[in-house]
Amino acid sequence: MESPQVVVVGAAGMDIKGRPKKPLVPGTSNPGGIRISVGGVGRNIAENLARLGVRTTLLSAVGNDEWGQRILECTAVGGVDVSQVLINPEHHSAAYLAVLNETGERSISIDDMDIMASVTPQYIYARRRFIKEADMVVMDANLSPQAIRSLISLARKYEVRVCADPTSAILAQRLLPHLPDLYMITPDASEAEALCQTRLSSRSMAISAAKQLVALGVNIAIITLAEKGLCYATSAVSGYIPAIRTEVVDRTGAGDALTAGVVFGLLNDFSVDEAMRLGVSAATLTLQCKETVCPDLSLERLYDQLVI
Fold first, then answer.
1. Is the dihedral of CA 278, 282, 288, 294 positive or negative?
2. What tens digit of pLDDT does each residue of 174-188 get?
3. Taking phi first (over 0 means left), then psi (-120 to 50 degrees means alpha), and beta for anything else, what does residue 104 get?
4. Model confidence over 27-49: pLDDT tens digits?
5. Beta-carbon contacts of residue 95 (< 8 Å; ≥ 6 apart)
6. At 33, which helix (H) or strand (E)?
7. Strand 94-100 to strand 55-59: parallel, antiparallel, or no bridges (unpaired)?
8. Cα 136 from chain centroid?
9. Which residues pair with 20 in a beta bridge?
10. What is Dmax (Cα atoms) for the chain?
11. Which domains are seen in the chain, by residue range?
């Protein structure tokens, strides 16, 4: 029996992260460290899945530049099929710039994702065979509204489940028209607030928001709460999974790892609750790692980290 197959459609870029040694002082230069690594929400999810043994194909776009080459090489080394990634010489590769505080939490960030306009409905349609053969499609909201509509339409035609990462509070709005067609959605608190038009100031409110997303048509809604864990809901159950206590090296990419861990669990017929725990385990391993995707992520390490 072949292992499950996933198509991930979303951003692939470079992450530039600066972290000061002491509390940030605005308006001046702050001594600290700067790291550059391969990132992008969709790409991160794809690499995490591949490192967990899932056959994963990435649909995305990079520039015909050094960064684009590095993105393709690093993603392929992680086990992802990058043969369908578009190389567009008219755009530079995507980039994400984050300034962290001294504890590793994001202070401010800027993303340059103009190249994602290259992932058009025509590009997606030309690769419909990959979607037809997939057990699941995972997308991020860096896609244009037209591309999202085209992708979801094809997935519906081929009866393939679609999971969506809202990516940011601003981009989350692009998913609102498609909630009834989503199998799973994984917003953080700010993204859930944008989707549900309500403030989330407690765990019970997060569970209520997850239930609201299910009422709007989503099968599984997960709201991540950073160091507080996650809340989730389906039409049958709802619950809360606490975070695993750990030293935080870098928070970037933890949410992407969580999504991948949950998807892995669902593809392998774990219960929803067990899939959530796998997701929390994957996020914890990523928090302990300097890279956006933990390079030694594996199924064995996932189980070792797991707290039942």
1. positive
2. 999 999 999 999 999
3. left
4. 999 999 999 999 999 999 999 99
5. 13, 14, 15, 16, 67, 111, 112
6. strand 32-39
7. unpaired
8. 14
9. 32
10. 59
11. 5-23+31-305 (3.40.1190.20)
